[in-house]
Amino acid sequence: MKSGELVNTTEFVFEGLTDDPMLQNILLLIFLIIYFIVICGNSVIFVLIWQDSNLHTPMYIFLLNLSVIDMTSTSNILPKLLMTVFVEHDTISFGECITQLYLFIMFVCAEVFLLAAMAYDRYVAICFPFHYIIMMSLKHTAGLSVTAWAVGLISPVGHVTLISRMSFCGSHVIHHFYCDITPLLRISCSDIDSVEMLTYAVGILVGFFTLIFTLLSYIFIILRILRIKSSEGRGKAFSTCSSHLTCVIMFYGTMMCLHMRPTSTYSSQLDKCFALVYSAFVPMLNPFIYSLKNEEVKRGLRKLKNKIINYI
């Protein structure tokens, strides 16, 4: 069959996570709880930043965007996963699969750019505190946020175009719990070289360069912090970026394990574990990471709680 021929399938079947009925029920409960925490936790962060004028600063505007990405990216994957666990072998139409793939790539690319923007914000705040208002004005902050979403919207177009023209003449079972690039390539009988090359190109242009930019930002931040004489000052400076650094490590660690390797080394079980960390646990942990050690967020939460109590 020629590469580029129209697909000859109308739906796929997800392999899911397990065939054990008892384990399925446990996973269903766990993922329901996780999804509830993701939506509630990120919604609270979103509402908190939106309504508190004291939090209308670049870092919190970026965090508001990150909360939106966490909620929408999780909603792109977890509801279908819950159906897969509940029904055991759930199907997805070809159109829905391509849409899910597009949204997955979009949110990943938007998030890496947003994390880089947040790293730059911390770099300017610590290394150029007297120029922070000028360098991170509302105009610049809005521009970086819009650019992050624009990068996300454009990045998946190539993958979606190429994969939508592939043929799937063998098994229609996707050895995963959502439509991702590698699982789809594994069951295609078309030439996948062009898609793999595009994956590496997008990975380098979007993922690698934003990672290098983020790492360089933190190298300069660390060098600047080390020049602070008092231990209290060093601790205070580092605390302003420790939450973001934790999220960067979790995000890039799982995404590099998922995508920055040849298709020949693909392991469905291992990839499912990494994908669960990215799609469920990282969005669930982000609100806690950014709020537990953040006094401004804590004050905002107390104010929001008091407003709700007084309203009731």
What is the CATH architecture descriptor?
Answer: Up-down Bundle
Question: How many helices in DSSP terms?
Answer: 11
Beta-strand fraction estimate: under 5%
Strand arrangement within the widest β-sheet reads 2-1-3
Largest sheet: 3 strands, mixed
Distance between the termini: 66 Å
* Number of distinct beta strands: 3
* Domains, number: 1
**Percent helix:** over 70%
Overview of the structural elements:
This protein is mostly helical and 312 residues long. The protein has a single domain, classed as Up-down Bundle (Rhopdopsin 7-helix transmembrane proteins). The chain contains eleven helices and three strands, in the order βααβααααβααααα. Strands 2-1-3 form a three-stranded mixed sheet. Helix 2 packs antiparallel against helix 10, helix 3 packs antiparallel against helix 6 and helix 6 packs antiparallel against helix 8. The longest helix is centred in the middle third of the chain and has 34 residues. The radius of gyration is 21 Å and the shape is globular. The N terminus is likely disordered.
